[in-house]
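Figure caption, in words: inputs first, then the predicted bound structure.
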Amino acid sequence: MGAPAVLPRRVLLGVSGGIAAYKAPMLVRALVKAGAQVQVVLSPAAHDFVSPLVLSTLSGRPALTDLVQKEEGTTTWNDHVHLARWADVLLIAPATAHTLAKMAHGLCDNLLMACWLSAECPAFAAPAMDMEMYRAPETTDNLARLTARGLHLIGPEDGELASGLAGVGRMTEPEDIVRRVAEAMNAGSPWAGKRMLITAGPTHEAIDPVRFIGNSSSGKMGFALAREAAAQGAIVELIAGPVALALDHPAVHRTDVVSAAQMAAAAKARFAHCDVAIMSAAVADWRPAHAAAEKMKKGTSLPALELEPTEDILAWMGGQKQKGQVLAGFALETDNELAHAMGKLQRKNLDLIVLNSLKDAGAGFGHDTNKVTLVGADKNTEELPLMTKAEVARSILRRIAILLPHAK
Ligand code: CTP
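Bound structure (cytidine-5'-triphosphate present):
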């Protein structure tokens, strides 16, 4: 079976100077096709084998080589620490005998080496060299040292070599490299390749073109869920109400909406295709029955607002839920919290409800922390301490992972 060759991650691709570098453009294309964002860093020697212009064009980002770049009187610095932190994965392909030797001994004479030394993310290398160089005791020692440090090796393969000889040393084909990295990155994560639908933020229901009814919600909890799920290998559809938040991750596809009706339409169109849906949005329960087309003027009398209910999106999902789909909702309560949350869980046919209490300091709107209680359909109740929203998101995902169909 194996994990799908989906790599919704940020890949820092190091290209060192060997003949196999001519395959680097194919590798960039395969990575992009698998859903990755790719930043290429070339060693200076790689320029003899592959065009940085081709790599920049295919990756959509300038391919970098120098720590310090001098252009038309200005000097800029390519921040290797920032590049290394940006990356979810460092992949060096091809990795020549010389580059592997420098990596093994901590030499730092170019940007690629500085990135390698700075990177704390998982790192992969696809060696490519002639068989004699690969079999040389120095190379064997270097590879042993690097794998002991945690580097994942992909190949080399047995086959035709650039020298015209045949033997071990050929770089693994680009598509196989992508598959191997995807499998290794996804190994062990229950979220690998899982399709997740997350709603976040408030909805605004128009009274007139400038006024609205809405709930207080920053969207931070939903965005933290999307970020964490993507980091763990999920592919996320994020439907966001009006929020001032950014999230740039290749595995997160964001749809911005304003009203409950727009959120309902976006969620309904996506629900059937998801394995898990988490409704963290604070959807407005009512909307003005008739929104004024023009701005209402302050007159002598107060306007009477006729309200009508919005559609309960979560309840609709609960009614549509198929075997194998997991559905989670949020409940914000001010009294009799547990009983109300359990009532919602049953009424809306949920598998999990996340109970927020407004009474807890540091929890709720706008905060970076939250204090929640997780209540399962089996009534299993887990009261969590005050944590950052990222930690709360991880706890929610851990709890939902147990409910996924293949989970033991
Ligand atoms: N929700 C929804 N659509 C709505 C209203 C709420 O999908 N129109 C979802 C929220 O995203 C949240 C959950 O339902 O996950 C909790 O909603 P809430 O408004 O608290 O529940 P109600 O059943 O409306 O109960 P009450 O307003 O009486 O507390």
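The pocket of cytidine-5'-triphosphate is lined by residues 260, 279, 281, 283, 285, 310-314, 329-332, 344 (CB under 6 Å).
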